[in-house]
Amino acid sequence: METTNPTKTVIIVSYAFPPMASPVSIHMRRLAKYLPATGWHPIFLTADPTTSLDPIDPEMTLPPDCAAEVVRCPSGDSRWRQALARRFWPGRLSMPDPKLRWIFRAAWTGARILRQKKVDAILSYGQYHTSHLAGERLASYSGIPWVSYHSDPWMDNPFLPPQDRLTLSVNQWMERMVYIRSDRLIFTTPETIDLAARRYNDPSPSHFRAKCHAIPHGFDPEDWPTPVARTRSDILRLAHVGNFYGDRTPEPLINALSSRDGIVVDIYGHVPDYWQREIARCGLTDTILCHGTVGFAESQRRMSGSDGLVVIDGDFPGRNVFLPQKLMEYMGARRPILGITPIGSPVSRILASMGQWTFDPKDSTRIRQTLRRWVECRRENRIIGGPVREEVAPYDVRTTTAQIAAVLDSVRR
């Protein structure tokens, strides 16, 4: 790993961090690994995993030669407080998320760091949105430039639970404060910037857009071995990595597959009981296999051993702006990718640019026809082309980290 002697310091505020099992932990691990090579020394301000209710992935660790500093403070998580909130005030758990109590511990710990060290910038990273509120407190306290990185929409997120009037008003105020007070904002897609700019256009849409940057998630080539060719087989083995929830469901696979197709889809992630019952009811228990959640390193091994990879996006009302981390990991696996996603979504746009396959979730006929062609190729030992090196280069984490560093450079005083 190429290194330099960092001359600038950034506090990166993120509740989630290794060894927590979270896509954000993957991002933080890679920032810790590659940001020092850009001249920025990162100090990660994060929650103590031993006090958090979030699951742990023992294989999610920092590289042994990592130069980053990590400062942990108590999470503030409490099972009994969350249980009381669910019973008496469910909206509290989405104001902005269940980690709200961590703000006060993070702000106090961050202020201590600021008194001890010269810091040039603050970068907050959400999900969780609580991290942005902690970042705002530190920026207000110190006057240091602040960049907020938004991996998902906030109030425009279709996965938000129903909110009472008070919860909705407070969340709108929080989002507006973060969007307006950030010196720069990073979103993962241009579509998310468009969505935010429609509501936060003070004093004008062009003013808001001028401080927004679109930087996608990235994959780390060093995490991936050279793909191993699979032996000839009559069975096409596909993998889907990630949880199903809300409008992200296995329904498109259930509608497109039959037990006679010669296809097996391995799902590594949570599948709600309802959809497991649907899989059984349709006689697909030997075709769609639900393995449950696995660790990050194990998921990479499963991806590398598959014939192809499936990404499924919800058919949300309105515009889909999501860029799931699993798509970046799929690029690293260099396997063929089948995208089941609304046409015009970021996933559809990116896969189309790479010559991969993308279909609307309701188009079960074309999904079925494409998979049957893949089965024929598999049986004849013909190669099904995945993305090539040049196509995935813009999503190399070394490239995306350099782009984040450039944004930090632009606000440094």
Describe the structure.
This protein is an alpha/beta fold. Helix content is 38%, strand content 15%. The mean pLDDT is 89. The longest helix is centred in the middle third of the chain and has 17 residues, at 165-181.
What secondary-structure arrangement, pairings included, does this model have?
Blueprint: E1 8-13, H1 23-34, E2 40-47, E3 69-73, H2 79-88, H3 102-116, E4 121-126, H4 130-142, E5 146-150, H5 165-181, E6 184-187, H6 190-197, H7 205-210, E7 212-214, E8 236-241, H8 251-256, E9 263-268, H9 273-281, E10 288-290, H10 296-304, E11 308-312, H11 325-333, E12 337-340, H12 346-353, E13 357-359, H13 364-379, H14 389-392, H15 397-411
Helix pairs in contact: 3-4
Sum up the structure in keywords.
413 residues; alpha/beta; 7-stranded parallel sheet; 6-stranded parallel sheet
Number of helices: 15
> Separation of termini?
29 Å
Proportion in β-strands = 15-25%
Tell the overall outline: globular
Helix/strand-derived category reads alpha/beta
Return the average pLDDT rounded to an integer.
89
SSE order, as H and E?
A: EHEEHHEHEHEHHEEHEHEHEHEHEHHH
The main β sheet shows up as: 7 strands, parallel
Number of strands: 13
Low-confidence stretches: none
For the largest beta sheet, what order do the strands appear in spatially?
A: 3-2-1-4-5-6-7
CA radius of gyration is: 22 Å
Estimate the helix proportion, in percent. Answer: 25-40%
